[in-house]
Specification:
With 133 residues, the chain is an alpha+beta fold. It is built from 2 helices and 6 strands, in the order βαβββββα. The protein has one domain: Riboflavin kinase-like (Elongation Factor Tu (Ef-tu), domain 3), CATH 2.40.30. β3 and β4 form a beta hairpin.
Length: 133
């Protein structure tokens, strides 16, 4: 899989995987919370198709940038659910490429609605990679 095959890379970031609140894991979508190396975090809140590099291996996933309004939180979070991945990567530096915005940040009426939307987001992102790789 080559990055050149994708139509457009929106942004590129590097950062360290840090501990989060582990809510994604509770919902069935564990995430790697990222503390960015650069101060430029101008990416708009939302959900994105992303590809990341860990230990020189490429992985696909979905990136969330936002304040997690459904959970009544206000601090900005940058986190990635890595598809088909189950390793402890705390403290590891990663690089990730942001490709396509799937949707903006939203508040849902319940955790169940949030999880249903995350499942739709995941399907949309997997379809994006299937047709653009």
């Amino acid at each position: 899989m080559s990055l050149q095959k994708y139509k457009k890379i929106m942004k590129f970031f590097t950062g360290i995987v840090i501990h989060g609140e582990k809510r994604g894991k509770e919902f069935g979508f564990p995430t790697a919370n990222i503390q960015l190396d650069q101060s430029d975090t101008t990416i708009e809140p939302g959900v994105y198709a992303t590809e990341l590099i860990l230990d020189n291996e490429k992985h696909q996933g979905m990136l969330y940038v936002g304040t997690r309004p459904t959970l009544n939180l206000s601090q900005k979070s940058i986190e990635i659910h890595i598809f088909n991945f189950n390793r402890n990567i705390y403290g590891i530096q990663i690089q990730f490429f942001v490709f396509k915005k799937i949707r903006g940040d939203q508040r849902f009426n319940s955790i169940e609605e949030l999880i249903a939307q995350i499942e739709k987001d995941q399907a949309a992102i997997k379809a994006f990679f299937a047709t653009n790789s």
